[in-house]
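Problem 3 from the worked examples.
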Amino acid sequence: MLRKALSRPGYMLALISVIFSYFVVTIGAYTRLVDAGLGCPDWPFCYGHLWAPLSDEAISLANQAWPEFPVDHDIIWPEMLHRYVAFILGLMVLGLWYITFRHRNVPGQPIKLPIAIGIIICIQAAFGAWTVTLKLWPQVVTAHLLGGFLTATLLWLLTLRLSGWQPGLRWVNTKYMSMRLAVITMVALIIQIALGGWTSANYAALACPDFPTCQGYWFPPFDYVRGFDIFQSVGPNYLGGQLDGEARAAIHYVHRVGALVVTGLMLVLAWGVHRAGLQSLAKLLIATLTVQVALGIINVYFALPLWAATAHNGVALVLLMVLTTIMYRMYRELSYDQ
């Protein structure tokens, strides 16, 4: 199977692109967590440089041009690393476009999917620029996060398709495989990831310092209207956030409730997948879910340690990929059974 996959046009490039997309997402999360989103106040350069101003003269000129954002190399490097890894990923997607065009007449060669990924990459580049030029508007930051997750997931789906992974388990019991439940679970996970992005973009991750209650409440009377006002006025700069404590706590609490819903759906889905005969995928889903829940609790109890908060983003992407793999396999198996 591996030899066959390696021989398919674009498979290795797609697989490497998945790895790079994962780095883009996790480095982006790290950049937000260390408040480096405005480490470079301009785009696509950094204080007008390809990396950062290094000489004393260049730093002095940069500080004069952007007095509200003095040069700080500690936050410049994650921002620029994120940009360059994203740029390399864009070049890889261009390579996938070339391979798709060149082998467009090969049976089984995906065409629409690589084109869609390329379009999303272009949109992502625009949101990356707006994240800087609009000074971390939470709406833009959240959309940029979702775009990164979508790009990585579609690249993984492309890799699965190029792998030539065909249904070959006739003994799979399809009566336990509910595509409807899988779709509902996928939608719930995407909403939960969006809630996580909104929590991070509004600096609400530390709004509830206790667990499982939130500021001592099981059903906190917080400001949900302001917390989820997507038309909020953000001022000239959103670094550090501008919502009050009640609005931030409302965002955090809804994210927790979403985690409970997603966990329940995934447990039911894992049971069905296991009963259907796909034990390995079921175990992988449960293992990844367990790690993600543990990271969420660690982030609350230990006041958002950097490693745990970054990993929380990365494991969320792994969850999305595992669920994509299950849905892909379910679709192929159900089609094969029919």
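Problem 4, a separate protein:
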Amino acid sequence: MGGIVNYSRTWANNVLSYVENDSEAQRILIYRQLAWINALRVQLRQPSSFSIKENRAVEKIFDRHGERNPVCSGLDSFLSPEEDTDLENRKNVATHLIKNQGLHLKHLLKEEKITEFDKQIFHNNLEEMYNLQGRCERIKNTPFPRQYAYFSTLFTWLFVLLLPFGLLNVFENQLLEIKPTNVWWYMILMIFFSVLISWIFTSMEKIGSNSEDPFEGRINDVPMTALCRTIEIDLKDMLNEDNLPDKVQAQDNILY
């Protein structure tokens, strides 16, 4: 997502530098970039067949703050009604937005508002946008091999179940040498450390599973909504607009 932030700013800078004497074309090209980042954000947050199922408490938070709305929802503030309507029937909205940027550049070239050299610079920028989108989609659509996920969970729980038996002799030999009568204290310590060590290993296994898909909108996932709003503020500020949106604030101490 960091690359998307940087290349969005580069795109806006190129538009303002090369598309001269046409403020409306500048606004359309930059606003379409804002539509692209938001369309990509919502696409990446759509659940897949192998999405991780959280417990009900986490799912309630996700339902309250998550974004599984249609991809075109909210894009009407960045696009013309005609373009927004056309995108509603597209399978990959973000891909078509970049395509529309290229077609717009072709139109500007015919009107001699940009040069062929300017157009090449813009297309290099669009190529990088596609590359960044493809990387995100590969992370989203290519899970770890199932055998890796299955056996890592299996071995972790086998370790957790066998751990108390491994701690029996450790605590028994040490504590009984000091206070042979305080067997209950030895039992409490053994239970405590068994639970603590088990929690550490199961937490690490859970973190590994969640890292497979960082875009679902869960508590620890990439805060794409906040990043998109940051880009929107920067690009609108570059257009010298006055009514800039506010930064996204955390909800229930979670930044989405």
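Solution to problem 4. The longest helix spans residues 146-178. The chain has a mean pLDDT of 79.
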